[in-house]
Every structure is written in C-alpha cells, then in structure tokens.
Amino acid sequence: MGAIKKWNPEDEHFWETEGKGHARRNLWVSIPALFLAFAVWQIWSVVAVNLNDVGFAFTERELFLLAALPGLTGAALRVIYTFVVPIFGGKNWTVISTASLLIPSIGIGIAVQNPETSFTTMAILAALCGLGGGNFASSMSNISFFYPLKEKGTALGLNAGIGNLGVSAVQLLAPIVVTFALFGAFAGAPQYLGDGTPVYMQNAAFIWVIPIILTVIAAMFKMDNLPGTKASVREQMVILKMKHTWIMTWLYVMCFGSFIGYAAAFPLLIRTEFPEVNAMAFAFLGPLIGALIRPVGGWMSDKLGGAFVTFWDIILMIAATFGVIFFYNAGNFTGFLIMFMVVFMATGIANGSTFRMIPFIFKKPKEAAAVIGWTSAIGAFGAYLIPSIFGWSIDTTGAANLALYIFIAYYAVSLVINWYFYSRKNAEVKC
User: Fold this and answer.
1) Is 431 a domain residue?
2) Phi-psi bin for 331: left (phi > 0), alpha (psi -120 to 50), beta?
3) Is the dihedral of CA 247, 252, 253, 254 positive or negative?
4) Which of 133, 287, 402, 416 has the fewest CB atoms found within 10 Å of its own CB?
5) Residue spans of alpha helices (H) in 42-180
6) In 284-321, which positions are buried (b, 16+ CB within 10 angstroms) versus exposed (e)?
C-alpha cells in the first residue's frame, strides 16, 4: 500500500473521505492476525489435557503448569510489546510478531509425536506459545491509533473480540483434527490411545501453520504504518507515573485476567473435577461466549458509558461465581457449566467496557495506546495465575472452592474501585 502522509481521525472530513477506509482495511487484517495469536497462545490448554493419554506420564501439577506457562510468558512479552508499535510501526510489527507464531506451532507439532520428550522440552515449547499472547498488546495499541474517540470502543471490541475467538477455535478444532491424518504422512505418524485408537496430536499445532503464513503476507501488502505515532520507550513510559494507569490495570486484570485464565484452566478443571464428562466437548463454549460478547461490551459502553457497564457487569461476575461454587459443591455439572458460561459472558462484556474507558481517561492518543498495551500485558498474567491457583487449591484442599473465593474477593474490590473512581456521581473521571 502507498504510504499514508497524514493522519487525523478526529477531523470529521478526513475521517469520512479518507481515514475510515484505511482504518477498516488495517482492522480486517489485524483481526485474523490476533485470532491466530490467541489460537497459538492457548494450544496448550487442549494439548495438556491429552498428553498422558498418548504415553506421556506427567503429574496433574505438571499438566496445570504446562497450561499456565504460556500465560506467564505471554504476559511478560506483552510488557515489551506494549511499546513497540510507536517504535517499529504497526504494519512492520504485525508482520514480525505474526511470523514468530510459526516457532511454537512447528515445535509443538514435532515434540508431541514422541512420548519420550522431556517435561523440560515441553515446558520450553509451552513458554514459546507466549509469543502469541504478547501480540495482543501491540495489536490493540496499533488499532487504537486508527480510530476516532467516538468509534474506539467498537473498533477495539471487534479487534479483541474476534481475536479472542482464537481461544475457542483451538479448543473446538483441536479435538477434531487430531482424530485423522489431516496432512497425510507429511505431518508424521499417529500416536495411540490406551484402547489402540490412532490420534494425530501434532495436528493441533500444525493446523495453524498455513493460516499464519497467509496472514503474514496479507499484513505485508495490506497494512500501514501511520505517521505521527512515533514515540520512544521513554516517552511512553510516562504512563507508569499516572495513577489511573494502575487503577485501569487492576480492573483489566479482573476481566481479561479472568477470561484468559479460565479459558486456560477450564478443560483441566472439568477433567479433574468431573472425570465422567468429556471436557473437550464443552471447554470451547466459555471462550466462544466471552469473545463474541466483547464487541457488544464495547458497543454498549459507547452508548451507556464504560464505567456504568463495568459496574453492573462486575456484580454479575460475582453472582455467577457464587453460582459456580454452589453447583460445583452439589456435583451438578449442568449447573456448573451454565454458571461458568455466565462468568465468561461477564468477562467478555467487561473486557470491552474497560478498554472503552481508557481513551476517555487518557486524552492523548499515544498515552491511551500505551495504557491499552500495558493493561493488557498485566491482565494476561491471569492466564498463568488462575490455572496455578486452581492447581494449588485442588492440591492443597482437594477442591477448587478456595480458588473461586479468592477470585470473588478480587471482583468485590474491583467493584468498589470502579464505583469510586469512575461511576459514582462525583467520580474523579466520569467515563
């Protein structure tokens, strides 16, 4: 594409005559790139469930750790990725970061074919899946530059919401594609379950290789680097001195940390606590609901106000989590599943509403973009913390209750913080 010479989306004439077309084209390439990043990030949430069935001998603690490690590295990389778009350019970084997803996709596809592969090797490959997790910070930062304030909530909601569908997609597709020789002999020999059924675990990773290559090509030829968005790390780091950066980080951990953490832990949680249930038949539903509803959260916030939507949504999260505990203790899987779906829905709505709040709190586009990246970075630690806390709770007490009560306490504090700073009548920043 030809280089864009000027960029001012807040100018109504510029936006309608020129800006909107560029913005939409970049958004529709950014979305599949982010979708693939989430898919690769969460490969281990499904692979870990099935490893022992094909000859590996990892403990439950090790399996939860494998599911959690991509969250840890993804969150750490997001801290770095937060600041890269104003340095390298949005198009350039999308090409680089999307291409990097080939490393874990190919590596995992090779490693799962050999039950003798060490836990250390598997842990390294799980950690490399964090390359997918890191992409969210740079992707959201990049798209925030393209849209005027009045449309940021919807645009960011679409980018993140459809991108988040990668979590659901990997949990839905992986159990299907491992059942047959999707790539023929080219992808390697099958593994065998205890009853002799052949499976192709490598397909769960190899299936993403071709889409990644195609998306890299699309980004190279269809995306743009925007003028006027360059900034050094030092210039962007000013956000860390701002009080509201840390308040919004706390709130985003509440919603996105829950979404991605529950997505990573849910398959193993079902497998551990309801062993009679086929975990992978249901695991994809939560991330699917949470991802699909996220753009709605952004759209509702554009209409009603982000803080208002966030406040009532947190109340829903608290009530639904108590519902999860009730049905979990009753051993009622149907009720447990329904309540967890409500939790996932609430996380998705708040993911959209909190990101709509940020551009209203931080008026300078470069600051807003940096805060979006930073909050997403810290929020991503939920992908490590929640599976780890579930694993610790089950290992220590024999049940998941303690973990769920810890999460409820966090939500309650978040409710008070959101009300005090943003949604009450005389709030410091009404947004």
Assistant:
1) no
2) left
3) positive
4) 416
5) 43-50, 60-81, 85-88, 90-99, 102-111, 119-128, 130-146, 152-177
6) bbbbbbbbbbbbbbbbbbbeebbbbbbbebbebbbebb
pTM of the predicted model over 0.90: no
Provide the sign of the torsion angle of the four alpha carbons 95, 98, 102, 104, taken in this order: positive
Residue 40 forms part of a structural domain: yes
Range of the domain at 263: 12-423
Report the distance separating Cα 90 and Cα 113, nearest Å. Answer: 37
Kindly report the CATH number assigned to the domain that includes residue 83.
Answer: 1.20.1250.20
Residue 136 lies in a domain: yes
% of residues, the chain, pLDDT over 90: 65
Q: Which amino acid is at 212?
A: I
* Tally of domains within the chain: 1
Q: Tell me the pLDDT tens digit for each residue of 231-256.
A: 788 888 899 999 999 999 999 999 99
| Residue 199 DSSP symbol | E
Distances (CA, A) of 272 to 48, 173, 260, 343, 408: 13, 22, 19, 20, 22
- Nearest of 194, 419, 215, 407 to residue 321 by alpha carbon: 407
The angle, 0 to 180 degrees and rounded to 10, between the axes of the packed helices 152-177 and 285-304 is: 170
